[in-house]
Structure formats: C-alpha cells, structure tokens
From TrEMBL:
UniProt-listed Enzyme Commission number(s): 5.1.1.20
GO MF: L-Ala-D/L-Glu epimerase activity; metal ion binding
Protein's UniProt name: L-Ala-D/L-Glu epimerase
Entry-linked SUPFAM superfamilies: Enolase C-terminal domain-like, Enolase N-terminal domain-like
Gene Ontology BP terms: amino acid catabolic process
Alphabetized PANTHER family for the sequence: D-GALACTONATE DEHYDRATASE-RELATED (PTHR48080), ENOLASE SUPERFAMILY MEMBER DDB_G0284701 (PTHR48080:SF3)
Superkingdom of the organism of origin: Bacteria
Amino acid sequence: MKIIGLRIYPLTLKFGYIIHESFGAVGKEEKNVLLQIFTDEGIYGLGEAITLGPFYSSESQGTVIDMITNYFFPKALLGEDPFNIDKIVYKMDKAVTGHSIAKTCVDMALHDIMGKALNVPLYRLIGGKFSDKIPLRYGIGSGSPEAMAAMAKRGIDDGYKCIKMKCGMNPNLEIECVKAVREAIGPDNDISIDINQNFTPEQAIRWIHQVEPYHILNVEQPVPKHDIRGLKRVRDNVETAIGACEAGYSIEDVMKILIADACDLIHFKVARSGGFYRSKQIVHMTRAAGVSVMGSTQLGMGVELAAMAHFAVSNMCLGHAPYTAQGYGGGLLNLYDVVDTKGITDDIVTPTPLIEKGFLTVPEGPGLGVTLNPAGLKRWQGAPAIEVGKVF
C-alpha cells in the first residue's frame, strides 16, 4: 500500500456557545482543517487540525495547509507505506521543525488508514480497549456567579460529575463564581479550574488559597507557560493539585516539567502533541515519572473527538485514574451549545462520536470509525478544497 494523494478542506466554525477565558472570547470563528490522505488500494484516512490561532499555537489554518501540501506530502508521504509511522514521523520532523498540530493531522489520517486496511477499530492498534467509555468534564466559560452556576447545574443535571471552570479574568469576582458553582452542584461533584496562564505565581498562590475551601480538584496552568519555576512554586505552596497544560505542548516540554517536578498532572491533548505516535510516548513517560494525566480536546469536530476517544479508551493512564472525569468534549458541545451529541446531524463525519450522560463512547467501525458526511462538510467548509497528487 502506498500514499498517492491528499485533499484538504478548510473549515470555518462559528460556535453557539462562546467560551470567555483569559485568552479572550474563543469560538467566535475557528478556522480548522480536515484532511484526507489517499492510498493506491482505494482507502482514505481522515485527520483534523485545530490550531486555535497563532496566539495559542504559533500555527494557523494557512500554516497547516502549507506544511502538509508543500512539505509533508512531497518529503514524507508520497509513495510511502502508511504503516511506516516511525519513518514518516522521522521524515516530517526532518523536513519541518515544530508545527505539531499539522503533524497531528497527518498522524490521525495514517492511523485511520491502518485501521481501515486491517478492518479493526483504531484503538486495537494502539493498546486495545482498557475502558469502554470515558467520563468527561463539562466546560463553562468565565461569567457572572449566577451564569456560571446555571451552566454548571446544566451539566450536572445531564450526568457530568466534574465542571471545568474558566477563570483568571477577574480574580475577586471569580472567587464568588467558584462558591456559586459549588453551591449549585453540591458536595459530591468535582470542580476543575483553568486559568490559562493569566496569574503570576504570587497571584496564583493567594487566589488558590481563597478557593480551596470549595474543594477544588485541580487548577490548570495558573502561570505563563514558560515559567516552569513559577509553576513549581505554586505547586509547592498550595494543597490543590496543580496541572500543566500549555506548558506541556511537546514531548520535550513535558520532559522539562517532569524533571523540574513542577506539577501534579499533565492536561494532555492528542490534537496538539503530534498525534497518536507522540501522544503514547508523552503519556507513558508522564506516568513513569509518577505524574497523572488528564485528557482534553481542542475545538474540533467529529474527527478530533473520535481520535480522542480511541486514544483514551486504549490507555490505562486515561481510562483508570484518580479522577471522576478525564476528557473534555468542548468542540462539538460548544459548537452546537448542547450537553450531548445525540441530535447532531451535520457534523463533518458520520456517525458523530457519542457523548451522552457525561460519557464519551468510542466508535466501533474500522479505523476512526467515522466517514465523511457531505451535508455537514457543505455547511462547515469555508473555502474550496485543495487537492495534491491522485485523489478519488
């Protein structure tokens, strides 16, 4: 089997629920990429790239398209056997430094091809099924105490056991927000807080002490991503578990955090770390260091959600952990402003991976278990498709 061509669909997504966080308003318009890689045996694989924009990842829809069409395809993919993952990753890394989201997109599609070629779900190729389904956190953007409490109750009423709050914009008000959410969801559900880098170490320590009476599960990325020493200072001076997210972008970044003993857990995203190949390395390295892992998504659609599901159920580090929630299906849930995916009919793929009662269930078809949905693609495609090589 050889790779012969690819097709790229630029996507433009406008979200029904816009997340307000310290980065700004996320979801007004997200420009993602859907990739098809074609083989000479009539099989294609799907990948999805979600950059969130240059402010977050140093990548954009334009750079992803450029990397894949002008570098990865001619230098690493054309004529190659899609099963040769190590070789392809080596060639992509040699051709391009960084650009891990573009590399993730390719990696997803290659694994999808492998599963389809062998007629098995992708999770069987990367560890088998450790868990049947994954408990998710329900995410709410920063707002008033009343608004955040109402959103939190919405998630708990639908079966979620953990609320992920976006804070870091208005520290004094957000203490009241945390209190209101705790009162709304009761003592038996968890609260996870994401600061998105917006505190100094001193601010983070002081603020976390003030919300600790409300029994916080963990606080994610309280300080700027480059400040590993500051992250460790926060961890050493509070009772609440401290997580690294943006600081742990690549496998090299995670290694530096682990060496510094700077966090209690890594908030991990397959969608930005290079795909399944690099993600396995990162997660097992993290657990070998005695640090926990929590999974998450970017703001993608059904391809990214399927990829997260396959990775999570195949991995004991994500399927069995000391937390009531692992993943975070914010993309589709925020896009449609829903608590589950049961009624979605115009995703870019079909079937849409199932989120119901706070759990994500892995698709059982070959590969990622999803196929292109022309109606959904028509709705979300933002520009003409780009074709390179031979396609069908």
